[in-house]
């Protein structure tokens, strides 16, 4: 799964990779959490567009948003059948850029140990995602998105049994542009990433608190050390992992 991630890559580098038309201005984010605005890239009329949506999918048919669960991840294996995702994965696919994400490994006698997972070559990841447009009875509107996940690869299995689906650059166009009637042909793209793509770095529990949104949360620590168990309260967001 993916319940927190980071996006710190310069805008121009993202434009070169994802070929969107806008020139957005946004700060580096080291600890992006559910319900916060996130960047997505999606198909536009003539060119890909960059925009911000809320993290946590809200299907258009939802009546009571207060009672509907927060859908920050969607299992790729069942997304084509699940009512909450099946329309979006056929018609409203997008890419969520990230340069790192975080997972927590449970320990028998210690607090959960957080890890930063990032590309081994230092590049930018492209999470396969879907987005939705919701309109309330009062005319209010909101766009939301969720990250598609797959089974974990061998690199991630010691930490978590799920991971985000990471698209290769050569598959961006197919993911964003494939016609609705051919959408299910993209299922092979929704596989675990190659084992060598990512590296896993233990970090301190400072990442647990959403307010800690700075580069220091990514500093590598020794697992089990006092530094690893920084004295900061755990965020309720961890319940989403």
Task: Describe this protein's structure.
It is a single chain. The protein is mainly beta and 241 residues long. The protein has one domain (5-240): hypothetical protein yedk fold (Alpha-Beta Complex), CATH 3.90.1680. Helices cover 8% and strands 30% of the residues. The chain has helices at residues 11-18, 86-91, 172-177; strands spanning 5-7, 29-32, 37-42, 49-55, 73-75, 93-98, 100-105, 113-119, 125-135, 141-151, 162-164, 198-202. The chain has a 5-stranded antiparallel β-sheet with strand order 2-1-7-8-12, with no helix packed on it. A 5-stranded mixed β-barrel has the order 3-4-10-9-6. Strand 7 (100-105) and strand 8 (113-119) form a beta hairpin. The longest helix is centred in the N-terminal third of the chain and has 8 residues, at 11-18. The chain is globular. The N and C termini lie close together (6 Å).
């Amino acid at each position: 799964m993916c319940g927190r991630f980071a996006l710190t890559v310069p805008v121009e580098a993202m434009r070169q990779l994802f070929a969107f038309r806008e020139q957005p201005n946004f700060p580096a984010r080291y600890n992006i959490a559910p319900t916060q605005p996130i960047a997505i890239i999606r198909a536009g009329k003539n060119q890909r567009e960059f925009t911000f949506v809320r993290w946590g999918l809200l299907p258009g048919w939802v009546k009571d948003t207060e009672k509907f669960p927060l859908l920050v991840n969607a299992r790729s294996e069942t997304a084509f059948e699940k009512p909450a995702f099946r329309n979006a994965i056929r018609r409203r696919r997008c890419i969520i850029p990230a340069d790192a994400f975080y997972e927590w490994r449970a320990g028998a006698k210690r607090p959960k140990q957080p890890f930063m997972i990032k590309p081994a070559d230092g590049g930018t990841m492209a999470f396969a995602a879907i987005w939705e447009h919701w309109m309330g009875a009062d005319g209010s509107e909101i766009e939301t998105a969720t990250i598609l996940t797959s089974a974990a690869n061998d690199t991630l299995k010691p930490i978590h049994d799920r991971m985000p689906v990471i698209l290769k650059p050569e598959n961006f166009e197919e993911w964003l542009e494939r016609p609705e009637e051919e959408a299910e042909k993209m299922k092979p793209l929704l596989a675990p990433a190659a084992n060598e793509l990512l590296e896993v770095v233990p970090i301190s529990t400072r990442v647990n608190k959403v307010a800690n949104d700075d580069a220091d949360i990514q500093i590598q620590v020794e697992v089990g050390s006092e530094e690893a168990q920084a004295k900061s309260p755990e965020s309720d967001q961890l319940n989403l992992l």
